[in-house]
UniProtKB/TrEMBL annotation:
The keyword Zinc does not apply. Residues 7-65 form the HTH lysR-type domain. Keywords: DNA-binding, Transcription, Transcription regulation. It comes from Thalassovita aquimarina. PANTHER family: HTH-TYPE TRANSCRIPTIONAL ACTIVATOR CMPR, HTH-TYPE TRANSCRIPTIONAL REGULATOR. This is HTH-type transcriptional regulator CbbR. InterPro entries: LysR_HTH_N, LysR_subst-bd, WH-like_DNA-bd_sf, WH_DNA-bd_sf. Belongs to the LysR transcriptional regulatory family.
Amino acid sequence: MRNLKGLTFKQLRALEAVVEHGTIAAAADVLSLSSPAVHSQLKLLEDNSGVPLVERDLSGQFQATQEGRILIDAFEKAWGALSRAAEDIEAVRRGAAGRVVLGVVSTGKYFAPGIVARLKDLHPEIEIRLIVGNRNEIIEGLEAERIDIAVMGRPPRQPDVTAQPLGPHPHVLIAKPDHPLVGAGKVRKADILAQHFLMREEGSGTRILTMRYLDRLGQGKVYDFTEMGSNETIKQSVIAGLGVALLSAHTVIDELCSGRLAIIRAEGLPIMRHWFVLHRSQQRLTGAMQVVWDEIRTHAQDMIRSEEVAEAITD
């Protein structure tokens, strides 16, 4: 940077908006500014940087250069840190002893409210904020420092994290109770590959696991699937007979217990993974964060309903 002192958040917001929306006009509309004002902010930022920060792609839309992406990533982290600071100050003003942002992958949203409720009962002086998202969204939250502690499956390679296992995380193949493969014993590979699968969106850990399972099972054979945006939609679609799905047992425990869904038994199933609690390795845990971290680790089996899940998927 030629002149770091000349850099402003207004300029960085202009850069982010232009890259996100593709044109200066669209960015101006989002920022409630005129197009010349956005252009001026972007030019000032490029002058201060000494390098181009945006370039046009083949469709004529603006995209970030490598230098522009570096600046946007830094801005998002700085903005996240300042937003967190403002929220922490507000929590202190209300008399809270601390504030913790807990991120949970969407597969865990069925037990996440119970975790928050238990933490609030044990430590009412700590303010807990819950963020639920798919695997990619939770990882992005950790990277941007919007999330303090996360509960998810396999820890990510980036960012570098400190992780502790919480308990088993089985994934089961589900179908409606009168499906021909339910109760058929150990089902053949060919019969499984012949099914129509219902899968989560890209970025979902469940989708990644399902595709790896089917690729391993079929050794490259093509399989039919439909993409859906939530576990709830998938469950209702399976109940309606639109297909089968490989889902976390924690997601379907209530439907299995009530008989609305059933498990297809096959070699290699259930797929056993594990739940982890984690935080960024470089993060210094505040007193409130340490309390939440310790409570989740100590009471993990109850919080993630391990015994209930194990009973529901047992033959």
